[in-house]
TrEMBL record, chain A:
The lineage of its organism: Bacteria, Pseudomonadati, Pseudomonadota, Alphaproteobacteria, Hyphomicrobiales. This is Putative phenylacetic acid degradation protein. It holds the Pfam family FeS_assembly_P. Gene3D superfamilies: Fe-S cluster assembly (FSCA) (3.30.300.130). InterPro entries: Fe-S_Maturation_MIP18, FSCA_dom_sf, MIP18-like, PaaD-like, Zn_ribbon_PaaD. It comes from Roseibium aggregatum (strain ATCC 25650 / DSM 13394 / JCM 20685 / NBRC 16684 / NCIMB 2208 / IAM 12614 / B1). Residues 123-168 form the PaaD zinc beta ribbon domain. Residues 7-67 form the MIP18 family-like domain.
Automatic annotation (TrEMBL), chain B:
This is Phenylacetic acid degradation protein PaaI. It comes from the Bacteria. One of its GO terms (biological process) is phenylacetate catabolic process. Pfam families: PaaA_PaaC. It comes from Roseibium aggregatum (strain ATCC 25650 / DSM 13394 / JCM 20685 / NBRC 16684 / NCIMB 2208 / IAM 12614 / B1). GO terms for cellular component: cytosol. SUPFAM superfamilies: Ferritin-like (SSF47240).
Amino acid sequence: MPVSEDIVWQWLSEIPDPEIPVLSLTDLGVIRDVTWQDDTLVVTVTPTYSGCPATAVINLDIETKLLECGVSKVRLEQQLSPPWTTDWLSEAGREKLRAYGIAPPVDGTRSDGSSAGRLARMTGQGDFQVACPRCGSENTEKISQFGSTPCKAAYRCRSCLEPFDYFKCH
Amino acid sequence: MASATDLIANDIQFEWLLRRGDTALVLGHRVSEWCGHSPVLEEDIALANVALDLIGQARMWLSLAGEIEGQGRGENELAYLRDAWDFRNFLLAEQPNGDFGQTLMRQFLIDAYQVPMLEALKGSKDERIAAIAAKAGKEVAYHLDRSADLVIRLGDGTAESHRRMQQALDALWSYTGEMFVSDAVDTAMADAGLAPDPASLKAAWQETVDAVLDQATLTAPEDEFAHTGGLTGRHSEHLGHLLAEMQFLQRAYPGATW
């Protein structure tokens, strides 16, 4: 009798994200399904960004972990649709990010490439504020649209003057 | 949802998928050439991340192309073991980086096209095409935010940055028309409900380009002449040089992995 899927989810929640180790893979929301097909455990994973180099490491880490837990037959399946979104980031994950010094995504601010968004950015009206994860101030500014990984942008706090990463709404 | 295979010949789908995949791959490689050379660290990181997204998108399109072709070729064989005449990217994507302004202008002109293209593809009757478009579309929307913002800031910046942005626009403009030319492949894909007719994307592209250039105080050339040939494998000399660098390792050490 194979272990229950709940236990598998528990194991998966112990695997850290390779680039932001304070988050687990389940916090990140990249595990879409866990199911047994006969004696094979099928884990369905969705990539965060198309070219994120962590994707291959994530797959390897899942296989390694499950083998360590005694599951001998594992199959990983990639699922593109629906595309990964930061809406799937767990509440616990958001708090862990903040405590780690990364501002969590501000929901509802994902880019749609529209000219309305551009106008808001250019005029500063309707643009959103990202709170500094260190001092909580909302007096912050974007330095660059990309940070140390594809999922982040670079910000600076005008109150405590510290730079920080912002986990973009995607 | 129907599979495209039921609707239209495989060789037509293969051609069309190469256009998507090769444009992403060649542009992604071009942008990656900046890694370690950008004017400031933040832009170096941004360019590398844009390149990563594009190369990731190329992998999805080329994997599907290989699957549809059914000859055992995957993303790697298609990327590394074809010569220039088998590539189907837009000529605009292979144009050299030039200065930072020219790289950004090229990015903007293509991003402004990719946003409506991918949006339309989300409604493709082939669910695999729709899934890739939904994934890539989110990334490209963000790329457009960045490239448009920087075109505006540099165009409407100093006299020198304005001069360079106008020069970039003048140099690249004649490569934009190719993106809206429809041929038999496009017509077949459009008739089957798999992809939009490229000509139908022109209005949305033009609207974005006009608005951004206006804010950037830049003027598009009036000449409508368009270089074409990328979609049938007749490329500028630049692609061969790009491939020589990109493919060197697999050509010199076939099958090498690490």
